[in-house]
Amino acid sequence: MIYIAKVSLGEEEKAAVNAVMDSGMIACGDVVKHFEEEFSKYIGADYGIATTSGTTALEVALRSLGIGPGDKVLTTPYSFIASTNAILYVGATPVFADIDENTFTLDFEQVEKCLNEQSGIKALLIVHLFGRPCDMDRIQAIVKKYNIMLIEDCAQAHGATWNNKRIGSFGDAAAFSFYPTKNMTTGEGGMVLTNHSYVAENARLLISHGMKVRYYHESIGFNYRMTNIAAAIGLCQLAKLPTMNNNRYKNAAYYMENITNDQIIKPGLIEGHVYHQFTLRIRNYSRDRFIDHMNRHQIGSGIFYPLSIPEQECYKKFHFQSNFTVTDRIKNEVVSIPVHPFLSEEELARVTGVINDFTV
Ligand SMILES: *Cc1c(COP(=O)(O)O)cnc(C)c1O
User: How far apart are CA 167 and CA 152, in angstroms?
Assistant: First the structure.
């Protein structure tokens, strides 16, 4: 079986975790601080605050920017649900705009239409979906024109770049996830990055019960602290990230060149893309048959995502706009194939052969 994702934890991670165990300091401490410094330096942001997950990182990012009840946050309907849940956690209201069929991310004309038609939109929450960097020139022009805040969901885009600058360093705040299937992992874990000292200070307080001096609580916070054990894994993974991303890019280049089935639309070889997923579109309503074909040949695939966010059962009661022309078509066409960094040449050739053999 060729799986859609693969986690590789080696001797380095084991040794680093053992060192933390031997130190006896297994909860939040110096290793977390070191990981925050190294990761924020790698991305090119001034401050990094490690958290328990990508989801809590998003929530903390929004809270630290002062986004809350009465505020609207414009975002994409086509993402993992956490990007919108975080908006709801802080008491703000999500507003959705349709996506572009080629980038799978927000359509900027639709974004501007929303901003022109609706008042009260305080922030734009973008998602660098599947590892593809959003067009940051367009986005920065929009946030400047409308004077709104920008939050980047980078849960799928560790190391992705736009004009040689790393994703996660553009917004007022950014959130990363280190879940095992992402481009790098800490088990569970996340990080908020920002260039604003006030956001960093707020985030630092929020993740630790509003406490700077032990048992003196300045605000009602949470316990969202990362552990030294997780951070030790993260430091090892960060060291491997450039090589792992490079392998993903090479795998994508191989597929771009060798997948020739004309029933299939490929995502393109995009500069700065870190190919968290390599996502195909299958024409003619034949995606289910494509997935059966892949399964028969023992090749894993995944539908990210079968439903748009606003049409999820748990959101029905909010009556958000839930019909979007492009999103509703794309969600029925997409299928992601294995692109993880540990595919062998034989496996790449096998996946390609099986895909090229598919007939509608
Ligand atoms: C994974 C993911 C998250 C949430 O990260 P967790 O670490 O699983 O909480 C948020 N947004 C997107 C786009 C993701 O892919």
Answer: 8
CB-CB contact of 114 with 161 (8 Å): no
- Collect all residues with Cβ–Cβ distance below 8 Å to 221 and sequence separation of at least 6: 205, 206, 207, 208, 209, 210, 211
CA–CA distances in Å: residue 182 to residues 75, 278, 280: 21, 13, 19
Identify the residue whose C-alpha is closest to ligand 1 atom 10.
82
Which of 153, 237, 304 is the pocket-test mutation for ligand 1 (most atoms within 8 Å of CB)? 153
Where b means 16+ CB within 10 Å and e means fewer, 114-152 reads bbeeeeebbbbbbbbbbbbbbbbeebeebbeeeebbbbb
Strand arrangement of the beta sheet that strand 334-337 belongs to: 264-265, 278-282, 334-337
With beta carbons less than 8 A apart as the criterion, state whether 195 and 182 touch. no
Which residue positions in the chain have pLDDT lower than 50?
A: none
Question: Which residues are within 8 A (CB) of 211 and not within 5 positions of it... i.e. 6 or more apart?
Answer: 205, 217, 218, 221
Task: Determine the Cα–Cα distance for residues 109 and 189; give it in Å rounded to an integer.
Answer: 34
- Rg over CA atoms, the chain: 20
45-94 pLDDT, tens digit per residue, is 999 999 999 999 999 999 999 999 999 999 999 999 999 999 999 999 99
At residue 241, the pLDDT reads 98
Cα–Cα distance measured from residue 235 to residue 240, given in angstroms and rounded to the nearest whole number? 9
251 lines ligand 1 (CB under 6 A): no
Q: How many Cα neighbours within 13 Å face the side chain of 301? A: 27
Supply the residue whose CA is at minimum distance from atom 6 of ligand 1.
54
